[in-house]
């Protein structure tokens, strides 16, 4: 069949309904042809024909349903009206067959052009399904077909970049009603049959996450101004489920377990508007979809992607971000990079939503035990949060000392960029908490410092009699710090900062950094040998230091003079006293 024949058949069917049987010919060719150009032409013609009959009122879903309920006795006498109904039923069957073929092409087609064309065809039919019914409802989104389409998308084994970009750019981000029903249908797919392993496969969860990332909730209700299907005016007739009151309590809208109470439209009141124009309605569906996704078993790589997306892309648009507390707490307990990624979102819940996390600092202390976390891509954000967590002046001295000691110990294995941040951070900790100055005042011989000696003398003078003084000396001797001969009382393997005995130790690790190969690290280590400053060190320049930046800084460095390569210039390869002088002749 030629392309001109396809257009001729389409024109004949539109001109005279007696040629309606040729519609079946077009469908048969659509199923059989392997030519991409011919398939595209057939798909376009069939779409135009079905929309043509829908506008005429011959493509009706209700008529098809009523006809199936009739008994045989009612069909014995075939009148002209009944013949029309039979035609409508036949058209509806052809329409369903066409939709099934388009869904099949979306799910199984390897050619991006045909797959995208089938998707666009389905979306045009979905936007026109309000013409398929006889109800007086002003807004009708073809969600029954759209749900089947989303089901095919989450089952796609491979997504091409072109197809994904088309779905996102032309529909999900372009129309808020498409985005709304996408979230609604994804929630339905992820929530049904949770015990079935056949549905909730890794591929389905990954594709659902891919589609969910396409959604973007606006900041204001006024931005909800683009819809695939035109919304009715407030005075038009609409169902109660599609109309809400702007002054309705948000908790009533957010309650997914109970039926939402939407008031009838007054027509004269401007307080009522369509559900799709309510920002809260979009946030409810967005929240429900994310909660449904997080209840699934997430693959490890996707797990990290989800945690990375939560702070900036998800949590600001959730109805109740505290619903993520259990998920984030469990993620924080995993350890490694997973804990690092969960740290940011967990901190937001603690800071902005008053989440109580009593073991937060203990787990953060354990997290610092892994030096590999200081070389991951998220290190700069981790350093920012670490500075915020440890900047509080209400932290007890033992906890601050434990973190200072743990960070100093990590410096012995960390890369240069991490050390350039950790040393100023430890400096600020000591400067902020005066009780920690004893960690740097202990001498290299590990004898009691002058401050410790003065403190011991004050305790002796405060005793009322010799018995109290003897008891105090006995207690002091029993808890005396043993730092001689290389003994460090700090317990590096202790998980509890309170039991680590960091206050009894010293920051000898920072002293060893004086001999670091990097001159900037060595200079930072010397800060602790002079009197502490009165102002804190700005950590922002040290957050994102990498080997590449260090290298670029060094090659741009201007030398003050010629570089000294030897103590005397050479005029020949071997000196006269060298044993190789006579071994070669040049």
Describe the structure.
InterPro entries: CCAAT-binding_factor, Noc4. Residues 339-524 form the CCAAT-binding factor domain. Pfam families: CBF (PF03914). Helix content is 54%, strand content 1%. It has helices spanning 3-15, 22-32, 36-56, 61-69, 80-108, 112-127, 143-154, 161-172, 176-191, 202-214, 250-254, 279-294, 300-314, 325-332, 336-352, 360-367, 379-389, 397-410, 416-432, 438-441, 450-462, 466-478, 508-512, 519-525, 547-555; strands at 243-245, 272-274. Strands 1-2 form a two-stranded antiparallel ribbon. Helix 2 (22-32) packs antiparallel against helix 3 and helix 7 (143-154) packs across helix 9 (176-191). The longest helix has 29 residues, at 80-108.
What is the helix content?
40-55%
End-to-end separation in angstroms reads: 87 Å
Strand order of the largest sheet: 1-2
Strand content: under 5%
How many structurally independent domains? 3
Poorly predicted sequence stretches spanning 5 or more consecutive residues = 246-271, 444-449, 478-484
Q: What about the largest sheet?
A: 2 strands, antiparallel
Tell me, rounded to a whole number, the average pLDDT. Answer: 82
Number of helices: 25
| Overall spatial form | elongated
Rg result:
37 Å
The helix-and-strand class reads mainly alpha
SSE string, helices as H and strands as E: HHHHHHHHHHEHEHHHHHHHHHHHHHH
**Count the strands?**
2
């Amino acid at each position: 069949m030629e392309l001109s024949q396809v257009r001729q058949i389409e024109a004949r069917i539109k001109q005279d309904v007696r040629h309606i049987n040729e519609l079946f010919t077009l469908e048969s060719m659509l199923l059989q042809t392997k030519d991409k150009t011919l398939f595209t032409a057939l798909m376009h013609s069939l779409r135009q024909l079905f929309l043509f009959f829908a506008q005429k009122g011959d493509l009706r879903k209700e008529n098809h349903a009523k006809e199936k309920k009739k008994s045989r006795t009612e069909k014995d006498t075939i009148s002209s009206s009944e013949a029309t109904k039979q035609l409508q039923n036949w058209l509806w069957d052809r329409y369903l067959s066409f939709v099934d073929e388009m869904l099949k092409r979306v799910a199984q087609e390897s050619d991006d052009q045909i797959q995208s064309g089938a998707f666009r065809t389905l979306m045009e039919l979905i936007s026109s399904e309000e013409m398929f019914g006889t109800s007086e409802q002003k807004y009708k989104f073809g969600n029954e077909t759209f749900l089947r389409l989303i089901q095919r998308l989450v089952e796609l084994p491979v997504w091409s970049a072109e197809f994904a970009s088309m779905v996102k750019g032309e529909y999900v981000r372009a129309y808020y009603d498409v985005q709304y029903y996408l979230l609604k249908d994804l929630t339905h797919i992820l929530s049904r049959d949770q015990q079935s392993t056949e549905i909730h496969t890794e591929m389905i969860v990954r594709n659902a996450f891919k589609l969910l990332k396409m959604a973007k909730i606006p900041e204001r209700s006024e931005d909800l101004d683009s819809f695939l299907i035109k919304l009715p005016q407030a005075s038009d007739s609409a169902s109660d489920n599609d109309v809400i009151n702007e002054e309705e309590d948000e908790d009533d809208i957010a309650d997914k377990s109970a039926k939402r109470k939407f008031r009838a439209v007054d027509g004269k009141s401007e307080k009522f508007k369509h559900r799709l124009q309510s920002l809260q309605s979009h946030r409810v569906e967005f929240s429900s979809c994310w909660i449904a996704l997080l209840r699934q078993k997430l693959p490890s790589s996707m797990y990290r992607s989800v945690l990375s997306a939560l702070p900036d892309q998800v949590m600001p648009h959730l109805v109740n971000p505290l619903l993520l507390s259990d998920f984030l707490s469990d993620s924080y307990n995993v350890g490694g990079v997973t804990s690092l990624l969960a740290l940011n979102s967990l901190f937001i819940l603690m800071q902005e939503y008053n989440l109580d996390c009593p073991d937060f600092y203990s787990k953060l202390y354990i997290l610092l035990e892994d030096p590999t976390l200081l070389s991951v891509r998220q290190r700069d954000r981790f350093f920012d949060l670490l500075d915020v967590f440890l900047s509080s002046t209400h932290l007890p001295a033992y906890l601050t000392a434990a973190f200072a000691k743990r960070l100093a110990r990590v410096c012995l294995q960390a890369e240069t960029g991490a050390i350039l941040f950790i040393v100023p951070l430890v400096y600020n900790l000591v400067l902020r908490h005066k009780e920690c100055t004893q960690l740097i005042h202990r001498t290299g011989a590990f004898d009691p410092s002058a401050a410790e000696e003065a403190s011991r003398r004050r305790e002796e003078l405060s005793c009322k009699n010799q018995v109290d003084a003897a008891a105090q000396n006995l207690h002091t001797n029993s808890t005396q710090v043993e730092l001689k001969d290389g003994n460090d009382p700090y317990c590096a393997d202790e998980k509890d900062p309170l039991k680590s005995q960091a206050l009894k130790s010293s920051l000898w690790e920072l002293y060893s950094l004086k001999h670091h190969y990097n001159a900037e690290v060595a200079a930072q280590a010397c800060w602790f040998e002079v009197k502490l400053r009165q102002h804190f060190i700005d950590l922002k320049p040290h957050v994102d230091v990498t080997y590449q930046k260090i290298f670029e800084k060094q090659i741009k460095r201007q030398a003050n003079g010629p570089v000294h390569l030897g103590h005397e210039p050479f005029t020949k390869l071997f000196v006269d006293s060298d044993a190789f002088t006579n071994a070669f002749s040049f």
